[in-house]
Amino acid sequence: VSGSGREEARHTFSARVWRIQVWFVRGRLDLIANELEQLALSADELREPMTTAQLLRFRAILASARGSFADALDIAERAHAAMLRTGQALAGGQHAGFRCSVGRFVGYPRDLADALALPPDASGPFAGMGRTRSALVLAALGRVREATAEYRRLDPVAAWPLPSYLQVTAWALRLRAAVALAIRSDIAALVELLTPHRGLHAGGGLSYDGPVELAIATGAAALGELDTAAKDLQVALNWSRAHGARPFVVEAAVE
Q1: Hey, which end of the chain has fewer CB within 10 Å, N or C?
Q2: Angle at 95 (CA atoms; ends 78, 194), nearest 5 degrees
Q3: Bridge partners of 210?
Q4: Phi (first) and psi of residue 238, to 5 degrees
Q5: Is residue 240 within 8 Å of residue 212, measured between CB atoms?
Q6: What is the C-alpha separation between 231 and 237, in angstroms, rounded?
Q7: Left (φ > 0), alpha (ψ -120 to 50) or beta: where does 236 sit?
Q8: How many alpha carbons lie under 13 Å from residue 122 in its C-beta half-sphere?
Q9: 203 DSSP β-pair partners
Q10: How far is 97 from 54, CA to CA, in rounded Å?
Q11: H-helix or E-strand spanning residue 202
């Protein structure tokens, strides 16, 4: 493919990437496999490291959402290798972010804390999400003092500058970190921010992080609002069972 044909193929690829991200946010895992087949045709036509990396990343995300963690990590390693060939400075952080999403269910390897580490002056929405993941992993590894220091470098919840397309994912991620560190004021603020977004799902571009109801339930339980937590957990459990999202079935059932 060359010239105008390559440009058209890139537009087609980008449109399919957008659709896949929308299906993740809407929880339509049932539609993503077919979209990935179409995306693979576009990637094969272009044969570029970036398009290969994006295709493989989406395959890894879907495998993780289904609970096929070994496959997900293997595919993600190939996606990372392709992304490195693009020269993207964010390649390492993106790969560490995906590993963090898998670690939520299988445990966080100790090297992940170093992979997620950021300079103290790193700023911007993606740095904020990376710092949140770092705090979450440090807390899970028992390094609570370091986790708290990392978390405290974030902007206050009400002033956290996030583009609209990142908000639900970032709020859900930060809520898990706030729960892990028992920061009640942030838990309450994040539950309030997420409440209008019931019915949507966190993740899409880098990971799939489950129904918003699951995040709300975790926060509500930490605040002692057990009736709210139970109702949202049931919604999350019903959805996860219906869509074959096995890791989230287990998490919703044991919360």
Answers
A1: N
A2: 130
A3: 202
A4: -60, -45
A5: no
A6: 10
A7: alpha
A8: 18
A9: 208
A10: 15
A11: strand 201-203
Are 98 and 207 in contact, with CB atoms under 8 Å apart?
yes
Smallest Cα–Cα separation from 98: which of 124, 127, 65? Answer: 65
Cα(205)–Cα(184) distance, integer angstroms: 29
Which two three-digit tokens encode residue 205? Answer: 């571009």
Amino acid at 165: Y
DSSP letters for 214-240: HHHHHHHHHTT-HHHHHHHHHHHHHHH
Identity of residue 17: V
Q: Which amino acid is at 116?
A: L
pTM: predicted TM-score of the whole model, two decimal places: 0.93
Task: Measure Cα distances from 210 to 1, 214, 247 in Å.
Answer: 38, 7, 9
Per-residue pLDDT tens over the stretch 21-70: 999 999 999 999 999 999 999 999 988 999 999 999 999 999 999 999 99
Task: Please name every residue paired with 211 in a beta bridge, in sequence order, or none if there are none.
Answer: 201
- Please state, in angstroms and rounded to a whole number, the distance separating the CA atoms of residues 186 and 151: 11
SS3 78: helix
Whose tokens are 């495998």? That residue is 63
Cβ 126 vs Cβ 90: under 8 Å: yes
